[in-house]
Design a protein that fits this description.
Layout (H helix, E strand, L loop, with lengths): L1 H9 L2 H31 L12 H13 L3 H10 L6 H26 L4 H21 L4 H13 L18 H4 L9
Helix pairs in contact: 3-4, 4-5, 5-6, 5-7, 6-7
Length: 186
């Protein structure tokens, strides 16, 4: 055993193993400090300062807090900043929250105003369906997104009818429609 230990130590194996262990411990300590900092910021959302280097998880938390406090425009802007960041599951959650925001707003307007806001409701529902579909592409087993997408498809208003041409006039002669030519013959 002693001979094996000496041989491993002489070849630097144990030294390398020790360095790898120390590097792993340092990395774990750094991650622990980062998590502690994130948890402190998450407990008080007001202290989260959004910059280009802000962790997407913190931006997501800030956006969710804005969503819950009734400021959907700020939440949409914050979600938009992190649409392409993170892994597929995180991006799917961002898309789901965006789609839900649009869907909630469309349903509220549809209930309150009905067809008077046809264009606005259709625009919001289109955005909701796009985001919910993208969420399902990223994570197909997300049942909440499936439910919300089906709801969005169900409440989509029918296409607005074009006004009919109800012209009731009659043409007596060609001269009646040409104002420059007198009505009589030569």
């Amino acid at each position: 055993m002693e001979r094996l230990t000496r041989r491993l130590w002489s070849r630097g194996f144990l030294g390398t193993l020790l360095l790898i262990t120390l590097a792993g411990s340092a990395l774990s300590a750094r991650q622990l400090l980062t998590l502690k900092s994130h948890n402190r910021l998450l407990s008080t959302h007001e202290q989260i300062v959004i910059t280009n280097d802000t962790d997407p998880q913190l931006i997501f938390a800030k956006a969710y807090e804005q969503q819950q406090n009734g400021d959907p425009l700020e939440a949409i802007q914050l979600y938009g900043r992190i649409l392409q960041r993170g892994d597929a599951k995180f991006r799917a959650q961002v898309r789901f929250n965006l789609g839900t925001l649009y869907l909630r707003d469309a349903a509220r307007i549809w209930k309150d105003r009905g067809l008077l806001e046809h264009v606005r409701v259709n625009t919001l529902l289109s955005a909701a369906k796009d985001n919910l579909r993208e969420s399902l592409v990223l994570v197909p087993e997300q049942w909440d997104a499936r439910y919300n997408l089906e709801y969005a498809l169900r409440i989509t208003p029918p296409p607005k009818e074009k006004p009919k041409n109800d012209f009731q006039g009659s043409k007596g002669s060609v001269f009646a429609t040409l104002p420059a030519i007198p009505g009589g013959g030569p």
